[in-house]
Amino acid sequence: MMKPILLVDDSATMLASLTSILGKAGLAFVTAPDGQSAIDKVMGGLAPALVITDYHMPGMHGVDLIAKLRRLPATRFTPMLVLTTDSQQDKRSAAKAAGATGWLVKPVEPPALLQVVRQLVSQAA
Amino acid sequence: MRLSFSQRGPIIAAAAGAAVACLGWLGLPNPFGTPIAGLGCALLGWAVARAQRPRDLASNGHPARDRGARAPALSVVQPAPAGPPANVTPFPTSAISSVTAASVAVADAPQRAIARAELESFPVYVDLLNRQLGSVIQVSEGAAQTLLTQLMDVDGRITNLLQFIQTAGNDGGAEASIREIEQRLSQSRQMLTNLVEQQRAAAEDALSHRQRFAEETGSVLEVLDRVHRVAKQTTMLSLNVSIEAARVGDLGKGFAVIGHEIRNLAAEVQQLAHDVHAKVSSLMDSVASEILHQAERREQSEHEAMDDISEAIGALSGNLGTLLSHQRQVLSRVEAENEKIGAPIMAMMGSIQFQDIVRQQIEQLISMSSEVDTHMRLVGDSLEDGACAAEFETLAQRLEAMSGAYVMENQRQDHRTAMGQADAGGAAAVPKIELF
Q1: Positions modified as 4-aspartylphosphate (chain A) (predicted)?
Q2: Residues B228, B211: Cα–Cα separation, whole Å
Q3: Number of domains, chain B
Q4: Adjacency order of strands within the sheet including A102-105
Q5: Could you give the ipTM of this predicted complex?
Q6: Is B44 contained in some domain?
């Protein structure tokens, strides 16, 4: 059974868009509206195949989330993408330093998103 | 009511600012390059226009109905100085500094009190604006969710329909039935071939029977020939008896009669053998001819029937093949259309993300309007307390400080353009998708 993809975003629209794209492509997913919820899910036993997180979220931003997830056994080696409207290079560099696998700028086109997701999921499998 | 240029200026600034803000929000090009600059102009222009209005109305002889107890005081208000006071530091950008200077220009004491009172009502406008913008976020988010839900519903229905067509075509449906019919037709064709072989064997058997009949008939004729030869020898023998009987005279008369009778009997046997031979020959020819004729007619009839059946089977098989081919074409087309329909639906699912981008931009505007609100309070305080405008952060400085919170490159670019700053460049080189 395929591991789910963990989607973290405070925007209901983004979560709906991403879940519809991944669902149509036949990929399993789990959603979380913020960073703490995502951490709780992982600590609760979730072992995602991939994490896609927004950058700007209330409470905890995406790079902090990635840094914390990297310290958890279940997600230590899980590929993690930041999906954000932000395109600043210094934030990308910070994400990379925190352990992010890649950086996607919104709006991301479904074929490009699926290509990256399939590539990372197959590498992680 | 006619307004002077100084009176119309802030109102025009407010209207123009609002228009620019609207253009910016709608994503249309505008001379300020950003909705934020428009928003600032709108807010400041509105504030100054509100501060000036009672005075303007008083000077034109029309008391302001909504001013209440403050209205009489407006009648003694003197026109504001033409330029900013010496202790006011103009803002670096022309659009913002001109409006700010206009607001600070109302610097005499009663005017300051009125301006401050008006500025105190500014948060109401900011709150109204923020509520309206918040409502835009909620409405657009709800609309995006509805669109996406309906889109997924359409996608689900199309997918189900296409799956039904594919299932009907592939699983135990028409193709399986056609396959079965084709198999049975093949069996029928094989049976027909076997039947033809059997008929050919039967024809050969009939020919063999005819030959055997001819052989048996021939043996009968040989027997008749032997009878005929025996009769001839008997005739010769009877002639010899007659000759010998004549040689002995009267004593041989009895033998002569016997010889004569034997000769007659032999002649009759010979005639009888001849007649039987002729009849057997005739019968043999007739029977052989009939057998041959019947065999030929039967073979021809059966051959024609076989040809008809074979042709019918061939036509049916061809029709089934056409049907099968057509069905395969339909399935192939369905699969192709499925992919064609799936691509734009998937693209629309991605395009819905625009709402999140708009949401973030509006949230930025809300933060910005709050900053302007704070600034306007300070300006009001400065009017009442006589504080120097340079003692607090200028609006331009506030906006500049906010620029660090921009998340999109186009926001930063718009900010630089509005603030008259040089283009930083290089941002376009950053890829939208980057794997580290």
Answers
A1: 54
A2: 25
A3: 2
A4: A29-32, A5-8, A50-53, A80-84, A102-105, B433-435
A5: 0.88
A6: yes
Interatomic CA distance for residues A99 and B273, integer angstroms? 126
Q: Given A13, A92, A120, which is nearest B356 (Cβ)?
A: A13
Residue ranges of domains in chain A:
24-107
Answer yes or no: are the C-beta atoms of B408 and B357 closer than 8 Å: yes
Whether the per-residue pLDDT at A47 is higher than 90: the answer is yes
Please count the residues of chain A: 125
Among the partner-chain residues B345, B355, B435, the one whose CB lies closest to the CB of A102 is B435
Q: Which residues of A touch B (CB under 8 A)?
A: 9, 11-14, 16-17, 20-21, 24, 55-56, 84-89, 92, 96, 100-113, 116, 120
Predicted pLDDT at B170: 64
Buried b (16+ CB within 10 A) or exposed e, A18-57: bbbbbebeebebbbbbbbbebbebbeeebebbbbbbbbbb
Q: Give B191-208 pLDDT, tens digit per residue.
A: 888 888 888 888 788 788
d(CA B40, CA B37): 5
Interface test with B, best of A10, A17, A115 (most B CBs within 10 A): A17
Which CATH number is associated with domain A24-107?
A: 3.40.50.2300
Percentage of chain B exceeding pLDDT 70: 70
